[in-house]
Amino acid sequence: MIFSEQSPVTFADELPDAVDVVVIGGGVIGISTAWYLVQSGASVLVCDKGRVAGEQSSRNWGWIRQQARDPAELPIVIDSINQWERLSRELDEDIGFTRRGVLYAAASDDELAAHEKWLDTAAQHQLDTHMLSGAQVDELIKDKPGQWRGGMYTPSDGRAEPFKAVPALARAVRRRGGRIRESCAVRSLDMQGGLTAGVVTELGYVKTQAVVCAGGAWSTLFLANLGVTLPQLTVRATVARTAVAPDVYGGNAALGEVAIRRRQDGGYTVASSSTNEHFIGADSFRFFTKFLPALSASVRFIRLRFGDGLVERMLPTRRWRDDEITPFEERRVLNPAPSPRAVAAMRKGLARRVPQLADIPFAESWAGMIDVTPDVVPVMDEVADVSGLFLATGFSGHGFGIGPGAGRVMADLVLGKPAVHDLSRFRFSRFADGSPMLPGPGL
Length: 443
Known about the structure:
The longest helix has 17 residues, at 74-90. This protein is of the alpha/beta class. The chain has one domain (21-101, 156-431): FAD/NAD(P)-binding domain (3-Layer(bba) Sandwich), CATH 3.50.50.60. It has helices at residues 28-39, 56-59, 74-90, 109-116, 119-124, 134-140, 162-175, 219-224, 282-286, 288-297, 310-314, 327-330, 340-353, 399-415, and strands at residues 21-24, 44-47, 63-64, 102-106, 130-133, 150-154, 158-159, 179-181, 186-192, 195-201, 204-207, 210-213, 233-242, 252-255, 258-262, 268-271, 276-279, 302-305, 362-372, 379-382, 389-393. A hairpin with a 6-residue loop joins strand 20 and strand 21 (389-393). The strands form five sheets. Strands 5-6-4-14-15-16-13-19 form an eight-stranded mixed sheet. The protein has a six-stranded mixed sheet with strand order 8-2-1-12-21-20, covered by helices on one side.
């Protein structure tokens, strides 16, 4: 199920006069943060301009992957996959979680060597990641043997169904006393004496001393109205799902130019990472120098596009008053059309790599906008110049897998608890203190 502005509102709690924390954004990061806050006894309101999990949180691949993560992210991801497993038992709903492994197959010795570089990181964290021979890959992928030189494999990695998992967790937040309001954009913050005192929403004012901005692709725009600059861009990623298909592999696999994930419904989620697209806009030029290292490293995977809406992207609205209609109300759900080029690449990749799936029809294709930072890791931090404002954004396509772990991190930050992970790589100040923007292996 892909959510849109026409999807019915299912979370319509009344706005309270005051809460301990307001979370902006009902995606996996915002909902996970709310979950751990209510677990700690805090009163929480989640506001989403559109729908819970309406954007990338329901549109991603559904991978819960430790393999090949940035070393700074990895401890949080390890915690996150364990939390997903626990939630799958504790929630009253089936979210499709299972550990069936992640495989990166390699068709050349150079690809194998590139994968092997990550083994030291895996060993430092006692992961079960290991290299496979070509014959061992053929034992896992029950189709077209002999095309692989080997691969990297992490059996403990998992998967879940995104469109089920995040709404299920949101319903659990409500059962624990949290409030969630869809179709309710937060327009601005109320600052008094240099401190956060409340939020101004389209439906009224709520008093609070702590706000978590988990707005994904919208975070840069929201912060601009506060005079805060966040260098973040968006990338369109296209995904498809097949009809019921033969079981060629039960986990998640990157097979050259195509990636597949076995689904609960008996089909496969299919993607082609080499066809992700960035649509040029004003922020592309504003943040060009910061993104240059990432662009150079991902030139094979990201296509630059102009496309429809160029004028709007070149002349964005960055400022508004509290009593004005905001861009968040004018376009409540980012629902980009899937890329025909990407869909064609998926079909070609399946035909080449997994012939048994080549003629299985696509039941549906869709696209989502991924929020990406210059170094392809998120921001998880308090904004020094806006006391009481915390950022959890820029997860760069890693958000679903890292969601519960990141939610625990953010809840601890808001509540003033000691950090259990090294968060220095995720500090907001790195974009302004001269730190080099170095994309990690998670790219």
